């Protein structure tokens, strides 16, 4: 593709060069047309920039927003069990994972379930951006054998219009809502730790013992984030004093979604704390809504000198399209069942022309 | 980008249209120049195609090759332990993972170690494409608590010249060499199963109980492979009769690296079996070197109707470059130690201008 583009470019320059010797007025016409195009792009850019800026700055405050947009959440299934082991660190980590249907979804959830199973005493809250409970996700959760809550909470249609969509926010909001409700029913509200862990990130088992030290809010380094390749609080004399993160914008807490945890009793003491639908600012605004200052943050992972979580990303790919091989029938081979499974797992469609 | 391309295109057509009315000879010149470009590209394409074809077809046979190129392998460390559990399926799965240094490497190995730990009775052979033993990889292996062998085996310099390099082959060859040596020392050569599992793929725990059924060679579906989104044998009446895979080329066995397993006693009965340095053809040629036919293959995963392994790929990214924040010193904050760890883990470099 790029070669033909260059080819065309050379051709264009050559034409322009010779052409000016024949007709200046036509050149001017061409130039004006060129400028018209440029002007159009500048105009479009300004429209888009204004449109998005408006969205971030003048969006109604969160409580009013909830009246304007319809939020919907549902519990698909839940499994609780008794805590394992003994000792003071015997409480739940509520691990919140927003997810959505895509060809990579099921393997992502499966390999994350392996980590969480080894971590022990993790209650996995999986919230799907969907209007219906996915049986594939339910199966992964059931098979994991660990305590879980399966939620659905689609992104409100209001946000479809924006270029940069607040991904996973509706899921995390539903998880917060479920957690508050769940904790109210428990005897002790000092019941655990809230942590947001996406389905493609990577978690060292050491992270989980660190998380259990959280008193109100804790923070720690995250690898593979931004231009620095790492995001972390700056810690001096055992206290968080600043942040090392390549992207500041107007944020107060420069922290990745996977870089902090909140004790559930502290969360319950902040009944209005909520995550807003603001792409890139979800962490910061959620932490601000907890009404904390830098001195309230407990630095973990050896005073923020170790990396126990990585913002790995899995390559997205489209569903495949299977071309049925000639000479074999779906009924007397494995192909019929295999096509069904490939469809069920969201891996492939089958070419209808078979 | 695409908009400017269209812009230029419209401009070119407009110029061409008016131009023909002025000078036909110049148009011919332009056209001939255009054809010259085309001819150049066709020529380049033929050169590249010939170059690569030559490489695949006329490369010396494997044993001669080993005299021409220098192969080097070394054992960095190894840990063995007793088999867990009881029953007839109590033997080792030798899980071969080639790997190389990159920012994602350590998290990849960590999360794979979680799966392998749960799978039980897995001996993890990790072979690095490197001339020196990486202490970071050694640490992951040691901390996993599972039996492992840590190898290094750099790709021979001979292959650096090729556009499409045989990635991971030197590691798998070293692993095969180590395994043959290791099995010779054991009392029973029916000691386990050989499986090639890359560090970014995803493995359901069900895969491992399937692998243990392998008699000589077994095969099963792999998700997220090729244009079909899946690769699998075609099974009729319990026998492998063909393959469903979007990429055929001249391969006999259309199977992904993660889509087959070999019993170690069968491997030992084929002393000349080896994986050649042929990008895209490694699996096929290795299986051919085992001297098997379709009827020797045992279809697993419910007669190849279930997906227990996925060819997930992790997004590659460059090392970050940390800009040291003004106002903080590395010595009296966490930053000095954190920079060291970020460098050690291959996540980031630090801007020298601090």
TrEMBL record, chains A, B:
Pathway where this protein functions: Protein modification; protein glycosylation
Residues annotated as catalytic: 283 (proton donor/acceptor)
Residues carrying a glycan: 303
GO molecular function: galactosylgalactosylxylosylprotein 3-beta-glucuronosyltransferase activity; metal ion binding
Catalysed reactions, as listed in the record: 3-O-(beta-D-galactosyl-(1->3)-beta-D-galactosyl-(1->4)-beta-D-xylosyl)-L-seryl-[protein] + UDP-alpha-D-glucuronate = 3-O-(beta-D-GlcA-(1->3)-beta-D-Gal-(1->3)-beta-D-Gal-(1->4)-beta-D-Xyl)-L-seryl-[protein] + UDP + H(+)
Record has Protein transport as a keyword: no
UniProt: Mn(2+) binding residues: 200
Cofactor requirements of the protein: Mn(2+)
EC category name: transferase
Keywords for the protein's UniProt record, in alphabetical order: Glycoprotein, Golgi apparatus, Manganese, Membrane, Metal-binding, Signal-anchor, Transferase, Transmembrane, Transmembrane helix
Membrane topology: Single-pass type II membrane protein
Pfam family, one: Glyco_transf_43
Annotated GO biological process: carbohydrate metabolic process; chondroitin sulfate proteoglycan biosynthetic process
Signal among keywords: no
Localization in the cell: Golgi apparatus membrane
Enzyme Commission number(s) from the entry: 2.4.1.135
Chief location: Golgi
SUPFAM superfamilies for the chain: Nucleotide-diphospho-sugar transferases (SSF53448)
Entry GO terms, CC: Golgi membrane
Family (UniProt): Belongs to the glycosyltransferase 43 family.
PANTHER family linked to this entry: GALACTOSYLGALACTOSYLXYLOSYLPROTEIN 3-BETA-GLUCURONOSYLTRANSFERASE BETA-1,3-GLUCURONYLTRANSFERASE (PTHR10896), GALACTOSYLGALACTOSYLXYLOSYLPROTEIN 3-BETA-GLUCURONOSYLTRANSFERASE S (PTHR10896:SF51)
Protein name: Galactosylgalactosylxylosylprotein 3-beta-glucuronosyltransferase
């Amino acid at each position: 593709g790029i070669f033909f583009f260059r080819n065309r470019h050379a051709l264009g320059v050559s034409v322009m060069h010779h052409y000016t010797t024949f007709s200046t007025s036509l050149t001017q016409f061409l130039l004006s047309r060129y400028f018209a195009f440029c002007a159009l792009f500048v105009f479009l850019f300004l429209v888009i920039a204004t449109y998005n800026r408006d969205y971030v700055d003048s969006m109604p405050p969160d409580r009013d927003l909830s009246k304007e947009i319809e939020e919907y959440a549902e519990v698909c299934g839940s499994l609780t069990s008794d805590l394992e082991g003994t000792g003071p660190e015997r409480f739940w980590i509520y691990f919140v994972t927003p997810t959505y249907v895509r060809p990579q979804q099921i393997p992502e959830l499966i390999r994350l379930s392996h980590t969480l199973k080894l971590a022990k005493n993790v209650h996995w809250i999986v919230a799907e951006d969907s209007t219906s409970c996915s049986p594939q996700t339910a199966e992964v959760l059931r098979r994991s054998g660990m305590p879980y809550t399966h939620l659905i909470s689609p992104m409100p249609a209001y946000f479809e219009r924006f270029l940069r969509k607040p991904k996973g926010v509706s899921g995390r909001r539903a998880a917060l809502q479920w957690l508050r409700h769940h904790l109210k029913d428990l005897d002790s509200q000092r019941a655990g730790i809230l942590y947001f862990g996406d389905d493609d990130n990577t978690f060292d088992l050491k992270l989980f013992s660190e998380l259990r030290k959280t008193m109100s809010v804790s923070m720690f380094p995250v690898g593979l984030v931004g231009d620095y390749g790492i995001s972390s609080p700056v810690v001096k004399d055992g206290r968080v004093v600043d942040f090392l993160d390549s992207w500041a914008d107007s944020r107060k807490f420069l922290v990745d979604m996977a870089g902090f945890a909140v004790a559930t009793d502290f969360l319950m003491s902040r009944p209005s704390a909520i995550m807003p639908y603001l792409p890139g600012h979800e962490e910061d605004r959620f932490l601000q809504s907890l009404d904390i200052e830098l001195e309230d943050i407990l630095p973990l992972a050896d005073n923020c000198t170790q990396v126990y979580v990585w913002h790995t990303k899995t390559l997205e790919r489209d569903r495949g399209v299977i071309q049925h091989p000639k000479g074999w029938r779906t009924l007397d081979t494995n192909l019929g069942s295999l096509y069904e499974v490939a469809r069920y797992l969201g891996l492939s469609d089958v070419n209808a022309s078979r």
